[in-house]
Amino acid sequence: MFHLFMRALLPRDHQLMPRQLLLAIAMFVFKIGAAGAGTLAVVGFNVDSDDASDDFIAAQLAKSDGIDIWGLTEVWDKRDWPETLRLGAETGAGKAYVSILGTTGGNERSMILFRGDRLELLAQEEITEAQASDREAAPLVARLRLVDGPEFLFMVVNLSDQDSRRRKQIEALAAWANRQALPVVAIGSFFFELDVDRPVDPDLDRLLAATGWAWLRPESDVGTWCGDRGRITDNVLVGGGATGWDGSATVMYPQSNYCPDSVRSSDHRPLLARFAFGDEALPSVSIPERQVRPFLPGGVKVVSGDDTGQVDENSPPPVSQSEYDALKRRVQELESRPAPSPAPATMPTTIPAADRAPGSVPKSAPAPAAPDAPVVVEESIDIVPPAPTPPQISAPADPYQELLKRIEELEAEVKRLRESETDAGQ
């Protein structure tokens, strides 16, 4: 329909018209016909799968409600990573998600998850000319249509952290962008040298100048990478008609205790972008207030050692299914308890004079007698000697932290076994 409309609108010799003018007319017509009303919430998340737990990342997705599209990078294509993440997103939204997994990048792929009830997939592609190497994922693009909004291109990016490679990728992205007429939302790890205190980078400026895109600067005073609290390595860029959308970006998990990352978590913070069309307000999205405490998969059985039965003394002890279940129940029990309040100081208790024998001292605190001297106590006076200084006892270990440490050891062992299996299969 769009092509028929353009043919009717343009003169027969429109091929002679400047290409930039054709694109401008196309964008104007698109805005008129498809502006509509509605909202869109997307998240870019570098899940760092070579140093994280799929269950941990899935639990983070499950804690976030209201997300229409997840753009994930560095997703391991083994051990059910993609399916685990999809189910995590569905748990959070209570809706079915459609999964698009890229084909490039070796074991670390790009992935798009979108709500099937709100979005329709029209096409997908990978921009292989913008791929840094065979071992790195090419930008993954999905052409989507919102049921209550416009048609647009959603791109997941994971550029190289090497300057020379990243600049070649920027050139290829610019060439691709200049061939597009639809709005573009590009999200992911661009690895620009941006900082919350100095939001300037020549590579970003080069890309924006070549494409006409705009950077949606995060409304936060924290960066997205654990290696440098202020560095904004993950970004949201909008192009075409999307530059006119009402939008904002927010860094999720801004709490300082999110970093440093562990063997379970990613070393990147997710980045949320919200958009509104027409007269709609920006959508409300639930963002977790604290880190989550996920566990190993329920069916895992870790056995340390080799085929000869020799146990590696440097490896954590093996875990059985019963131990795993007990650990999980215990941590859930501890997490469900409210934080203990400090115990009030206890004071010695005396027995009222009316309730004790005449001439006696308080039963709870007998007064020691001086040598060779009688103790004279008037009934109207309570004699309470100073309480003895209690012996210094070291505080007991926190069982919650001990269990979490044990879980991290087990997940480290799972990671080691996965890597050994991968090496053996190559």
Briefly characterize the structure.
By secondary structure, the chain is α+β, with helices and mostly antiparallel strands. It is 27% helix and 19% strand. The strands form two sheets. Strands 3-4-2-1-12-11 form a six-stranded mixed beta sheet, with helices on one face.
The 3D shape can be described as globular
- What's the oligomerization state? single chain
Strand percentage lies at: 15-25%
N- to C-terminal separation? 50 Å
Strand order of the largest sheet: 3-4-2-1-12-11
| Helix proportion | 25-40%
Return the structural class.
alpha+beta
| Uncertain parts | 1-17, 21-36, 298-313, 342-371, 375-383
Write down the overall mean pLDDT: 75
Order of helices and strands: HHEHEHEEEEEHEHEEEEHH
- The number of helical segments is 8
CA radius of gyration is: 31 Å
Major sheet attributes:
6 strands, mixed
What is the number of beta strands?
A: 12
Structural write-up:
There is one protein chain. This protein has about 425 residues and is an alpha+beta fold. It has helices at about 1-10, 20-35, 55-60, 80-95, 165-175, 200-210, 320-335, 400-425, and strands spanning about 40-45, 70-75, 95-100, 110-115, 120-125, 140-145, 150-160, 185-190, 215, 235-240, 245-250, 270-275. Helix 3 (about 55-60) packs parallel to helix 4 (about 80-95), helix 5 (about 165-175) runs parallel beside helix 6 (about 200-210) and helix 7 (about 320-335) crosses helix 8 (about 400-425). The chain is globular, with a radius of gyration of 31 Å. Residues about 1-15, about 20-35, about 300-315, about 340-370 and about 375-385 have low confidence and may be disordered.
